[in-house]
Design brief:
Helices cover 40% and strands 19% of the residues. The chain is of the alpha/beta class and 156 residues long. It has a single domain, classed as Rossmann fold (3-Layer(aba) Sandwich). The longest helix has 13 residues. The model has no long low-confidence stretch (mean pLDDT 90).
Amino acid sequence: MSNIESPARKSIALVAHDNRKKNLQQWASHNRDTLARHALHATGTTGKLLQDSLGLPITCLESGPLGGDQQIGARIAEGRIDCLIFFWDPLEAQPHDPDVRALLRLAAVWNIPVACNEATADFMVHSPLMNSAYPRAIPDFSSYRGRHERPPESGA
């Protein structure tokens, strides 16, 4: 294991399924002052909704079904996202469920804190760790990479 330093100013990804966007909007409004101290990223529709209601700068990516979940996942793998707040709808199947599962899997692989509902999001953003540097443990993937890397292609 090694550590990566999550800075005091976190990069927070905000994602919500359609039936949960209103819940995320209300939660974010209640926690606006806390969120304002951090860099915010969101999938397209959610990001636009939050920008309009909070008046905060938010990096808006694509809508989830158009690749936004995968964009957030790529940023997690690159070490550019420190926390994920994802209000997903557990009662309705999503056409992009594989992308949703992949996003949650990447958060687990890279040891990113994830909140999937208001209560967990409250615990996360009100933790003393949210506003201080945090040495996040990263598993050593060197043996995995060694087993799964492709040999270089020969230039014929």
